[in-house]
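tool=predict chain=A
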Amino acid sequence: MSFVPESSGPHQGLVTFLGTGTSVGVPAIGCDCAVCQSSDARNNRTRCAITVRLPGGTVLIDTPPDLRVQLIRERIRVVHAVVYTHEHADHIFGLDDLRLMPFRLGHAVPLYCTEAVESNIRRAFAYAFADREDTHPGATPKLSLHRIDHAPFEVLGTEFIPIPMKHGPHFNVLGFRIGDFAYCTDTNLIPPASIERLKGVKTLVVGALRMEPHPTHFNLEEAIEVSRAVGAQRTLLTHTGHQLDYQKTCDWLPDGIDMAYDGLQVGIRV
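tool=predict ok
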């Protein structure tokens, strides 16, 4: 299942799902469950991230620990900018894999993130910001930090609209709307004002961890409720765990809602 733009043009974009799995990925280490042992490639889920190919270049949303193999798998040679949803390890710890990008860009990689994400990146990757000269080119990632909040901002000539959300009772995260597409992973609460920001999207991506309730993630029923509240033509579920078999879950889901999978491509209008 792959969705691509009908034609290329200045208002077309292409989303590629680099990873659609939970923080531990699927298969999980040491697990012998049917999904972890499945021969269906769509049940092999690396940690969550997408790229959005825009007229001005390719934007990466989050840098998961699997980033190197994801970019190689999808033959993505260069990333022009990175936008972050939040600072959890499964969303930032692949940042060092950006070290090669400045050679292709000719400048530091721009990162767009909140103050909280920036603080954690500076702490986790302190060597990238050390006040000393590198021993050789490419020794550390070259990064340019750009602070974002809840206001719309521009990346590579395209508007990104932040979608404020909660990830458990005390943790704030962002989703993003880009044209008729929205990406909302790692949340268990999208406030009414944020639902309003999502109205009119054609393709909604939302996290759905498992069938049972979870304290910081939507389960399937909750994700379905969000899809109905937004009214998107198509909803794709990401950040799915090993409790969910791809084909069985898609067969159970209502029309217009499917699980995403690693490598899926979706055409969008920006």
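DSSP finds seven helices and 14 strands in the chain. Residues 1-10 have pLDDT under 50 and may be disordered.
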